[in-house]
Amino acid sequence: MKFRAVSQDTKMNYMLWSIKNEIRKENKYLASLPFDPSPIIGVVKYHLDQWDPIQLLEDGSQDDEYDGEARSVTIYIIKHMEEISVAGLGQEIQRIFRRSFLDEFQSDEDTFEIAIGILRDLTNGNEDVSSE
Known about the structure:
Elements (H helix, E strand, L loop, with lengths): L7 H25 L5 H14 L15 H13 L6 H16 L8 H14 L9
C-alpha cells in the first residue's frame, strides 16, 4: 500500500477548514433555538475569561480568545439543561479545552469550580455578570 505524503500547508488548511466547519455548525444550531442564547454565552464566557487557563488574556491577546470554547460549553448546557450536573459540565469543559489547546491545557480540577460558578450564575439569574 502506498501512502501519499501530505505537506504541512495541506495539514494546516485541513485543520482550518475543520475549525470553520465546526463553528458554522455551532452557529447554525444556536441560531435555530427558539430563544436567544446570548445571556448563557455571556455567563460562560465571563467565567472562562476569569479562569484564563492558558493565560492568553494576561499575555495581551484579544478578548475573543475563548469565544469558541464558550460557544461549545453553551451548546452542552442547552442540550443537557434538564439533567445537567457539575460533574458532567466540568468533564465537558475539560474535554473542550483539551481538544482546543492539546498539551497547553493540563487536566485541571478548576474545571469543576468553573462549572459550579457557571451553573450558580445561570440558576440564580445572574446573566448580568457577563457585562461586568
